[in-house]
Amino acid sequence: MAIVHFSLSSLKGLVLLYTFTILTKLTSAQQPESCNNVSKSYSSLNGMSRRDVPITPLPGNHLKICAVGKTCCTGDMEKKLKKHSNHEFDKLLDNQISPLRQMFNAQTHKFNGFFKTKLENAKSNLHTMFSGTYGVRYKQNSHVFFQLFTDLFNYYNGQDINLLDSLDKFFSTLLQKMFELLNEDYEFNPTYLNCVSEIMDNLKPFGDAPNKLSHQVKRAFIAARTFTQGLAVGRGVIDDVTKFGKEGSCLSALMKMRYCPMCQGQGHKILKPCHNYCMNVMKGCLALQADLATHWEKYLDSLLKVGDRLQGPFNFESVVQPIGLKISEAIMAFQENSVAMTQKIFKGCGTPARKGRKKRDATKRQTFDGGLPIIPTAPKNRPINLEQMVKEIRHKLKKQKAFWEELPHMICQKKNMAEDKKEINKCWNGRAQARYLPEVMKDGRLAQNNNPEVDIDLKKPTTNFDTQILQLKLITNKLELAYNGLDVDSIDVADGDVGSGSGSGSGWMDPGSGSNQNPDISFPTPSGPVRTRRPPKNRTPQPPHRDRSTPPLWGPDPTYVVPKPTASAPCTMVGNAFLVLLATLTVRVVL
């Protein structure tokens, strides 16, 4: 048996020869022998023509992106494929971001419509209730109440309105009107009525109602407006992110990843990019979007916190829905002590001159005795309320916290964009069908310094991107202020759809009587001129000692016909006897 001896140098030579042979076969196997398949694939792309494709392969040294061996692509084809891959990627990116944009659009519109519907319903309910309860006296002064709702609407829509000032003005004007009607035999000039308003804080004619209502309205409306504007800002950022310009090297990288296999003759069997190869291209092309991630997450955290407040102590539905009852309660508090209040006002502002005696018109005489307001009943089948709606919105927002970080992964997981992670050898690595060796880069522009696929110019200005970061920081700060119940300035948004449905709301409860507020949550002292009033003392209500020759001020309108209760009646009717019995009580109604 013959024994063959190999020296070490001979063995190395054989290994090198074998390696060269394998590489030569691999390269030659990937060289196109015909351009027929390429012609079919190329012409199937939108706007491409078979006439652009050469009949036989050409040397690839004339190409700028796919210059490897022989090729079925000309320089003109390469330019067209680069442009096509750019449009293709823009469409893919827009399709990927579109659900997020649609979600923000829908939730912004939903919350905005819900709020405006609730406020409009509260205004309508107050008008119906007060027209039936207080009659002509209310109708003659309804503009005072409408102005309050106008201020609330305008504040929510972004106007620079101080809510506390608006409520102060409302109760001040209400006091003047009621005082004038109560003392119709006296002459009052504007100076005297201003004096009446100035001593309002000391007299507390409406009890603690103005202070309570002002505090509740302020924090609820601040939270609601800022929450809606927060949703709108997020929507605007999403729209602008899709307009971020791509680096020049990104366009080349996209074309190389998608269509260089076609130039090498793959035809209909275009090699899919290796998954990690796709990831590096996406990490480079979406570097700016990835840099949004931290600010986006902070923004959503703040938005979710305000949403949590809206579900609980800052629930505007529980404020606006019973607002008519709260105002009616304030009116009744004034009626209880109207004689004493009048004497104190006369003492503080002086006794006015009496009018000349005129014969009373019996048809205009109001026989009010002060009664219970007619309270609209809740519908049997209640639509979604604020708490349920905000809960749904928060649930959807939570899922989007890592959206910008996950965007490259979502794109490369698509079947037409990259090969499955497990197929590490049967994929396009940017040069041939083989394993992709470079590691996947981290997120953000700074991390792309060593990206083998996309060159990032770190010195290039990113003005549009910086603007979006500033927008997110600004709204995040405002959301934090709203979360703490503090004043928040309005911001400009893309359109007027900022700020439908109905639901339930809790009544106005006394402290310690089982209110819907969380006792474990403390709030900072609200900024602004909030008046501090002592809580009303416990007392046995006594009938006011009025001069019966003077018509009482507010009460049921004798000309108002109470409809008979029916199954479909929109209001709960209170018996006349019950009205008379409780006419002098301060009514506290809990929905």
Summarize the structure in words:
This protein has helices at residues 8-29, 36-43, 75-139, 142-156, 163-182, 190-198, 200-203, 209-241, 248-263, 275-285, 287-291, 293-311, 317-320, 323-336, 338-349, 386-398, 403-412, 463-483, 576-581; strands at residues 58-59, 70-71. By secondary structure, it is mostly helical. It has a two-stranded antiparallel sheet. The protein is 52% helix and 1% strand. The chain has 19 helices and 2 strands.
Determine the N-to-C terminus distance.
Answer: 108 Å
If strands are numbered along the chain, what order do they take across the biggest sheet?
Answer: 1-2
Question: What structural class is derived from the secondary structure elements?
Answer: mainly alpha
Helix percent band: 40-55%
* Number of distinct helices: 19
Mean pLDDT: 78
Low-pLDDT ranges: 1-29, 359-372, 374-381, 499-591
Which terms would index this structure?
591 residues, mainly alpha, two-stranded antiparallel ribbon
Give a quick summary of the entry.
The protein is mostly helical and 591 residues long. It has 19 helices and two strands. The longest helix is centred in the first third of the chain and has 65 residues, at 75-139.
